[in-house]
User: Fold these one by one.
Assistant:
Number 1:
Amino acid sequence: MNRSKKHGVNPSMLQCTLCGQDYGLALCGRLPGDVEAPRRVAQGVCDECIAHMKTGILIVITPDGQPNQRTGQMLVVTQAGAEKVFTGYDFSKQRGFLLEQSLAKKVGLLPEEDEPGEPNN
Ligand SMILES: [Zn+2]
């Protein structure tokens, strides 16, 4: 790694592409144009998610229309269970994915309930 004169080892936090948590540090060094590395880079998958994907299919819930955000809800379902809900999808290749909250409710993975703060008539 070549150090940057301006930014030193030029670190970036590695952010898990599934659950979104910070899980490591990348030392980027001197980048083209000697630019500062981004504070966070969504790259790779953290150990926790890898562990979940060894036991089943990991589904990380995102708010509707905000794929870069997380609701904090994560589900691990059996491969057979996932194949029942998402027919025609090859879970042997991809064992973790993001799913919008409304879709998770639609397919029955999350309970249908009112959003907090909504009037309940
Ligand atoms: Zn993760």
Number 2:
Amino acid sequence: MKKREPESLCDKVLELIKKSGPQGMLQRDLWKRLKVSSREGSRLVSALERKGLIVREPITRGRLKTFKLMAVSHKLEIVLESVRGCPCFSCMNLVRCGSGQYVNPEKCEDLTAWLLKDEK
Ligand code: SF4
């Protein structure tokens, strides 16, 4: 059975990451703030990542590789009006369309026309 992290420590980590805002915080800075080893910190961060509460983005600072930690916002508001008329919703090629594929959004004239419709 896996060892579970104390909820209060996970909560503290999550709170620190949330406070860093949308720019996130470097993993190594989190270890310093918490005064924990990278091994212990990684375990805490992995637990939060598995729960879908944070995301880890690999970055390079100087010659060092590290991760940027960002809280996932669950307050995302989607305005359906903003996607009204998008050709993808009724496209026959939707299942085979994808970046790097023969049919792809980067070369799709219908999608480009829809995205630019308000630019004229
Ligand atoms: S990007 Fe173009 S081809 Fe792809 S699903 Fe949307 S409308 Fe269809």
